[in-house]
Amino acid sequence: MAIQHELLQSAGPVFTTPAGKATVMDSTQGAAASKVLRDEAKDLLVISPYTEREHLLDLKSLDMENAILAQALCRLECLRPDYATAPYIDIFNWGEIIEQVNRLAQQKGHSWKGSSFFVVAFRSQIPPTTVYEDLGTLDKAAHAEATASGGFLKYWFGSPDKDGKNLATCVWRSQEDARKGGIGPAHRRAAAAARDLYSHWKIDRHRLIIRDNVESWEITDWA
């Protein structure tokens, strides 16, 4: 079941005239507009710590395999405190995620087709001089940009440890989607700031493979 943004679920319709003045709608118009918003919210998924509208994934933009995985990834949890340095396969509850993929496919009466997904792990270290809020501002803008580009299924990031080391990870529909999501102006600004904000960073690429009927799965290095 999709995690819906609470503000979207409860928000009422906002209408203005071309001059920007609010108009008064009759009850029929208001009910119809509210239904449109509720229907839209059903297809919007929170995929990151950012919950504003521009950060939500529209499930209607995905095929069934990608939509199911995105929904299952809402249960992604970090299993160990040393995530900044631990082997990637051991950091998250991947077994539970795959079980949820299988469960959702069965609930929808869908025969899962073997699929692979592009996974990025960004390992970094910041010096004591870095203001973490500055990183957050750049990161949030880049996330909205990546979401708008399409195929961005999940984003998770931790907090720096005592040595300033951290991990962020993304799951994409494809490597091409990831490439498109990383070429906009917000990503260019973040890349330009990296030299000053990080003392070290490394990007690892992985492939998540879920085979026909969710009979098996694995995470491998991207090749």
UniProtKB/TrEMBL annotation:
Tell me the InterPro entries matching this sequence: Dimeric_a/b-barrel (IPR011008)
| SUPFAM superfamilies reported for this sequence | Dimeric alpha+beta barrel
The protein here is known as Uncharacterized protein
Q: Which organism is it from?
A: Xylaria grammica
What phylogenetic lineage does the species belong to? Eukaryota, Fungi, Dikarya, Ascomycota, Pezizomycotina
